[in-house]
């Protein structure tokens, strides 16, 4: 919270810049950003850089979107064990998809996926889940892979495409995901990796923990697949909204004072109608802080043929199998409405009055130190 509070204020220093056009001479002060990944003002630049890199990974195939969630009885455990449970969520979801996709009864191939962790609902409530973006097909080296009706084979491997509009059976995904996650959670408890406090303290006992999990072993866990994307460009637009999003953006804030905060939210139980919610200031901050990630935790991960270790080589093989050239499109560089634009490191934004170049004439360092001035003559 300290970083977000100080972001783009004199507390972090900055610089003074002036338009080089003699007829204009516009001058402005630009304060430094905090660069925290939880700051609503610092994510648009990071998102653009990440998307520019991901544009090179796009394939000319159908893309699918799958979401894995955690039931409330597990979410309360996650709240006190974020790093462990979030890690298990990634592991169980990725293993589920890879296992079912590798089964010859379904696809029989190695798939690739990008997974993004979100922990919030529209009203800032605690709702851990992962969004998974998956190309519609996979690689296979099986001797009989070329006999698959959707196979494209060359020396080095075979690309097997999914059926149009269909990825993997959701019910099968649900059951395997539930089993894998509960197995991993039980192992974490047995190995002493989970901690429990306050009302959850009794769950430290193995029998109490087993009783707590008993109901969720019999319920259906929510795993759902959304409609496939229209094409690679839509994937980038979607990722631009999801990869570096934080719990709430500035544009959703409507009003605030010393006592309360009012913001907009979508009520999906009422036809996704946009509504307004007012929370006590302390409750708003409490909800926001629920979604701060553990230090060093990676919220965006890649698996299968998109894993970092061999992504470049396997994408080259897949493009060869598909007779496809690398994509040339780049993600849009527009900022999210209500979010500030950011200059490329080492540069300044153009003059807002005449569009001319701006020149830094003064560096504002730590307020306890003297500012450095440049000779602007």
Could you characterize what this model shows?
- The protein has helices at residues 2-6, 43-54, 72-80, 82-102, 170-190, 206-213, 232-242, 281-289, 311-322; strands at 14-19, 27-31, 63-69, 112-120, 126-135, 137-140, 151-154, 157-161, 223-226, 253-256, 260-267, 273-280, 300-304, 358-364, 372-373.
- It is of the alpha+beta class and 377 residues long.
- The chain is built from nine helices and 15 strands.
- The protein starts with a helix and ends with a strand.
- The longest helix has 21 residues, at 82-102.
- Strands 9-3-5-4-13 form a five-stranded antiparallel beta sheet, with helices on both faces. Strands 2-1-14-15 form a four-stranded antiparallel beta sheet, with no helix packed on it. A three-stranded antiparallel beta sheet has the order 6-8-7, covered by helices on one side.
- Residues 331-346 and 371-377 have low confidence and may be disordered.
- It has two domains: 55-247 and 291-329, no CATH class; 252-289.
- β1 and β2 form a beta hairpin.
Brief rundown of the structure:
This protein is of the alpha+beta class and about 375 residues long.
- Integer tally of domains: 2
Please give the largest β-sheet. Answer: 5 strands, antiparallel
Low-confidence stretches: 331-346, 371-377
Got a strand count? 15
- What is the number of helical segments per DSSP (H or I, 4+ residues)? 9
**Structure classification:** alpha+beta
For the CA atoms, what is the radius of gyration? 24 Å
State the end-to-end distance: 41 Å
- Strand % is 15-25%
Form type: globular
- On the 0-100 scale, what is the average pLDDT? 84
The percentage helix is 25-40%
Strand order of the largest sheet: 9-3-5-4-13
Question: What is the string of SSEs from the N terminus onward?
Answer: HEEHEHHEEEEEHHEHEEEHEHEE
């Amino acid at each position: 919270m300290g970083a977000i509070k100080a972001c783009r204020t004199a507390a972090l220093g900055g610089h003074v810049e002036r338009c080089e056009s003699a007829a204009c001479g516009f001058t402005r002060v630009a304060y430094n950003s905090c660069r925290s990944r939880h700051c609503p003002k610092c994510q648009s630049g990071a998102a653009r850089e990440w998307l520019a890199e991901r544009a090179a990974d796009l394939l000319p195939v159908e893309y699918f979107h799958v979401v894995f969630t955690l039931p409330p009885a597990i979410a309360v455990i996650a709240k006190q064990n974020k790093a462990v449970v979030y890690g298990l969520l990634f592991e169980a979801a990725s293993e589920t998809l890879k296992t079912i996709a590798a089964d010859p009864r379904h696809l029989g191939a190695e798939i690739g996926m990008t997974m993004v962790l979100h922990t919030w609902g529209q009203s800032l409530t605690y709702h851990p889940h992962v969004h998974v973006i998956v190309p519609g097909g996979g690689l296979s080296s099986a001797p009989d892979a070329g006999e698959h009706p959707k196979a494209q084979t060359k020396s080095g491997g075979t690309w097997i495409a999914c059926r149009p509009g269909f990825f993997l059976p959701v019910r099968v995904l649900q059951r395997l995901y539930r089993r894998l996650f509960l197995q991993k959670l039980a192992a974490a408890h047995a190995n002493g990796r989970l901690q429990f406090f306050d009302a959850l303290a009794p769950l430290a006992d193995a029998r109490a923990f087993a009783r707590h999990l008993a109901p969720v072993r019999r319920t259906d866990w929510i795993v759902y697949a959304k409609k496939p994307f229209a094409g690679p460009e839509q994937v980038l637009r979607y990722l631009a909204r999801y990869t570096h999003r934080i719990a709430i953006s500035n544009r959703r804030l409507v009003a605030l004072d010393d006592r309360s905060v009012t913001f907009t939210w979508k009520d999906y139980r009422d036809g996704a109608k946009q509504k307004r919610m007012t929370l006590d200031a302390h409750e708003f901050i409490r909800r926001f802080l629920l979604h701060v990630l553990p230090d060093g935790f990676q919220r965006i991960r890649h698996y299968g043929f998109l894993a970092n270790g061999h992504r470049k080589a396997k994408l080259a093989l897949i493009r060869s199998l598909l007779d496809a050239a690398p994509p040339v499109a780049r993600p849009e560089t527009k900022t999210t409405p209500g979010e500030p634009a950011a200059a490329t490191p080492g540069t300044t934004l153009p003059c807002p009055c005449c569009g001319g170049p701006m020149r830094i004439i003064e560096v504002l360092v730590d307020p306890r130190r003297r500012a450095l001035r440049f000779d602007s003559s």
